């Protein structure tokens, strides 16, 4: 790709990470991460445990600060565009000891967007019904969440994200704790979502057949090992870099060596 093509790609991108660095305490968790994601792409984020996938998602959603470099959504800082992003974290914090219905869980995604007017409540109910219909669970709207399978509960969480009507949907380990059949159902669902122009990022440990499921893959192990078409970037060299030992790489790393672009 020449310089002109690269510049055009960045201009069309809605999520742009340029040398992004994030640290937790004294530890560098993400180092010099650079990539750009265009609107409507379905992106797999892969890498080992502790490789920074959840940290990256927390940075994109504005939950973690950027120490160096930059990370922008629509050209703005993540905390300025939170309404554009729906985030389904790896471990949902719902207390299942409460008697929550599917409807109540989805409605949680709309907290802060409601008023007390009857008209507003009708709009809220319609959003809930539409999002549940899109994940194939409208008939479960009054079901207790404890009666759902793992795959059904995951779809409820996706419906909660969809109800927010955000342009970007981020799913952290959407396929964990569900069987293969449920994984395929979720992927089919996400294909349908992508047709509506949403940009979807999914963290997953499964690197098999990514080219059949995703437009692009971001290979992450505290830094960006590769980013692009899965058929092109998932080479043996990249896989070794992702899952090999990186202790040596970070032994002498000092985040203060980077130029701070956030001033």
Strand content: 15-25%
Termini distance? Answer: 31 Å
Order of adjacent strands in the largest pleated sheet: 5-6-7-3-8-9
How helical, in percent, are the residues? Answer: 25-40%
CATH fold description: Rossmann fold
Count, helices: 9
CATH architecture descriptor text: 3-Layer(aba) Sandwich
Structural class: alpha/beta
Shape: globular
Residue-averaged pLDDT? 82
Computed over alpha carbons, the radius of gyration is: 19 Å
Structural domain count = 1
Unreliable residue runs = 1-9, 246-263
**Quantity of strands, as a count:** 9
Q: Under the CATH scheme, which class?
A: Alpha Beta
The CATH superfamily is identified as P-loop containing nucleotide triphosphate hydrolases
Order of helices and strands: HEEEHEEHHHEHEEEHHH
Largest sheet: 6 strands, mixed
How do the strands and helices of this protein lay out in sequence?
Blueprint: H1 3-12, E1 13-24, E2 27-38, E3 42-46, H2 53-60, E4 68-73, E5 85-88, H3 102-107, H4 118-134, H5 150-163, E6 168-172, H6 180-195, E7 199-203, E8 216-220, E9 224-228, H7 230-233, H8 236-243, H9 247-250
Parallel strand pairs: 3-7, 3-8, 5-6, 6-7
Antiparallel strand pairs: 1-2, 1-4, 8-9
Helix pairs in contact: 4-5, 5-6
């Amino acid at each position: 790709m020449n310089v002109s093509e690269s510049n055009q790609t960045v201009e069309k991108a809605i999520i742009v990470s340029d040398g992004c660095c994030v640290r937790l305490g004294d530890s560098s968790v993400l180092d010099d991460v650079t990539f750009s994601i265009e609107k409507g792409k379905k992106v797999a984020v892969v890498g080992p445990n502790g490789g920074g996938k959840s940290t990256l998602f927390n940075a994109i959603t504005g939950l973690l600060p950027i120490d160096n470099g930059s990370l922008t959504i629509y050209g703005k800082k993540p905390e300025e565009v939170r309404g554009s992003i729906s985030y389904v974290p790896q471990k949902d914090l719902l207390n299942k000891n409460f008697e929550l219905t599917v409807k109540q869980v989805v409605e949680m995604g709309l907290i802060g967007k409601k008023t007390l007017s009857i008209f507003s409540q009708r709009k809220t109910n319609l959003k809930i019904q539409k999002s549940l219909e899109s994940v194939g669970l409208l008939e479960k709207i009054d079901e207790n969440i404890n009666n759902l399978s793992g795959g059904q509960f995951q779809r409820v969480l996706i419906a909660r994200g969809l109800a927010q009507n955000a342009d970007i949907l981020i799913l952290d380990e959407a396929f964990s704790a569900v069987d293969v059949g449920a994984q395929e159902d979720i992927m089919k669902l996400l294909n349908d979502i992508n047709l509506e122009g949403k940009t979807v990022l999914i963290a997953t440990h499964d690197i098999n057949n990514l080219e059949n499921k995703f437009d692009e893959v971001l290979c992450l192990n505290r830094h960006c090992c590769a980013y692009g078409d899965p058929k092109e970037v998932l080479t043996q060299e990249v896989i070794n870099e992702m899952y090999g030992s990186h202790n040596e790489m970070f032994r002498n790393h000092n985040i203060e060596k980077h130029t701070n672009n956030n001033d």
